[in-house]
Amino acid sequence: MKKWYFLKISSLNCFCLYLLVCFISCKKEIKKENIKIEETSRVEHLPYFGDETFTPHWITPRSNEEKRFHKIPDFKLTNQLGDTITQKTFDEKIYVVDFFFTSCPGICLKMTNNMSKIQDAFKDDSEVLILSHSVTPTIDSVSVLKAYANKYDVIDNKWHLATGDKVEIYNLGRDHYFVENDLGEPKSVDDFLHTENFLLIDKNKHIRGIYNGLNRSSIAQLIIDIKALKKEF
What is the pLDDT of the chain when averaged over all its residues? Predict the structure, then answer.
């Protein structure tokens, strides 16, 4: 009787061990599959965007059509170091753009924290930069931007906090980056520009993606798309 009980317990232990091994193996497979999905872009080539509707255009990279497509024009702004930045600063660079202001009591802090995730993901990658435009440039002086940069661990020359002429910044935001998607509602420089959108710009100054800067999943997708864009060039 005792011998039978011993065998019964042993068999049960073996069965439990088998289930545990299977569970761990399955978990490892799921984890590997998740990694594979997270590192894979949704498409072979990211789309191009050329107006405020953000209709995707599926253009072959380095084609004649691409060369004629909408590009971000040159600009002249000043960063938190007091250095002049232009499109030459971003030559041969992929960069992420947003619009913010240092005294923002609402969404800007979350946007800054999420942009920090982009900075951390590519902090050792010289091909990837960040450009944040102040929409209150008369308030956000160089010294104010530098204090903000220090507070939020902004890496100088990796992440540019830009001030400058308000008309130029607002025209860039509305007419070239199309960050305010208010179709049919023309706005002037007196209308405050504020948006949670992040934009992905390629090495040829084309808009290749728009993302919700408040959404964790959108930020994760932006990181994936930057990696995909690096492979394109």
Answer: 84
194 among annotated binding-site residues: yes
Q: Is residue 51 part of a domain?
A: no
What stretches of 1-159 show up as alpha helix (H) in DSSP? Answer: 2-38, 64-68, 108-121, 142-151
pLDDT per residue over 90-101, tens digit each?
Answer: 999 999 999 999
Q: Are residues 104 and 29 in the same domain?
A: no
Residue 160 CA, chain-centre distance (Å), reads 14
Q: Given phi > 0 = left and psi -120 to 50 = alpha, else beta, which region is 92?
A: left
The H or E element containing residue 200 is: strand 197-201
pLDDT-derived band at 35 (thresholds 50, 70, 90) equals very low
Which residue matches tokens 């999420």? 114
Angle between the N-to-C axes of helices 108-121 and 216-232, in degrees from 0 to 180, rounded to the nearest 10: 40
Query: Which residue segment(s) compose the domain that 30 sits in?
Result: 1-38
Q: Are residues 112 and 189 in the same domain?
A: yes
Which H or E element spans position 210?
Answer: strand 207-212
Q: Is residue 101 part of a domain?
A: yes
For residue 197, the tally of other CB atoms under 10 A from its CB is 21
22 is in an annotated binding site: no
Could you give phi then psi for residue 128, rounded to 5 degrees? -115, 125
108 is known to lie in a ligand binding site: yes
